[in-house]
Amino acid sequence: MKGISVPLSQRRRSSIQSAKTRLGADCGSDHELLIAKFRLKLKKVGKTTRPFRYDLNQIPYEYTVEVRNRFNRLDLIDTVSDELWKEVCDIVQETGIKTIPMKKKCKKAKWLSEEAVKRREVKSKGEKERYKHLNAEFQRIAKRDKKAFLGNQYKEIEENNRMGKTRDLCKKIRDTKGPFHAKMGSIKDRNGMDLTEAEDIQKRWQEYTEELYKKDLHDQDNHDGVITHLEPDILECEVKWALESITMNKASGGDGIPVELFQILKDDAVKVLHSICHQIWKTQQWPQDWKRSVFISIPKKGNAKECSNYHTIALISHASKVMLKILQARLQQYVNHELPDVQAGFRKGRGTRDQIVNIRWIMEKAREFQKNIYFCFIDYAKAFVWITINCGKF
């Protein structure tokens, strides 16, 4: 009798409690029905440690005083950029954790009223014997608020439908329903095979990002001539401008230091960051933390198992943005000289709306004189990724 082997991993072998075969009802078949009894249980999801997030709206005066005093003891001249940044990073982190309160994250549903929130706070502070009573009271109020909230939402949806407001109708339905994000437990490798283990998925993402940001080392830079003039040293006014122009309330990089902790120090932070940027400009050596990025993958349309169907958002150190903004400002005049006048978009004072108006004008003239127009739309894949800049030694 021919046997059909059933593959089973070594990890799942202990889950089998019993196994047996039964003869098939068809005498002409040599297949046997395999019956097995498994012991299965749900995987326990471990709790992830929440990163420390500062309450930037409550930065005390003690933070600025202590950081300024410790900054005054730093050697800003003879210390290399990497070591100086490590000292600055330690000072800001230690003082911030000690003096700045942690941001409290309280997930509040849209339908919860102030009464329900107060009941929840009382429940969390209540005694054990009163917990059941307080919890039942909170659940009753929360259900009442949810029912009232959804009732108002449904009335607005019906009103928009009756008035023919399609845009408001669809928007209200999306807001009420909420987005759905499926949690993918696997990803495909380069050959299209599914990867389920966390370590394999991490290696695949590392491989993908390395290929994405890989530079062709055989591509020679083309220069029209020999550069004989050098840019001046980094100025404190440039550092001050760059620090003030960085957008606030943004996710911090791997060091976990938001730019608000430097902006509140004003001239003291400008002096320290200027010393670091000056060392980078002279030695072309960047601090290690400034060269690290934390990649956040956001799914796009398409198969969520393909790495190419994700937006890769890089979170960099906020302090490194000071140097990057200075370099960008200095390169801007050369970039504007090389860009043609017809190019618009992502340029100061020349947006794509001007080009849209020009296209509209051309279409009207072509229709007036009965002429054909041919448009060519080109979409560059990963246009903001495959850009390499030779600036400093990374």
Q: Explain this structure to me?
A:
The chain has helices at 61-71, 81-99, 114-125, 128-163, 166-177, 198-212, 236-245, 260-263, 267-283, 320-338, 352-368, and strands spanning 16-23, 32-38, 187-188, 194-195, 294-299, 310-315. It is built from 11 helices and 6 strands. A hairpin with an 8-residue loop joins strand 1 and strand 2 (32-38). Among the domains are: 1-41, no CATH class; 114-177. Helix 1 packs antiparallel against helix 2 (81-99) and helix 4 packs antiparallel against helix 5. The strands form 3 sheets. A two-stranded antiparallel ribbon has the order 1-2. The protein has a two-stranded antiparallel ribbon with strand order 3-4. Strands 5-6 form a two-stranded antiparallel ribbon. With 394 residues, it is mainly alpha-helical.
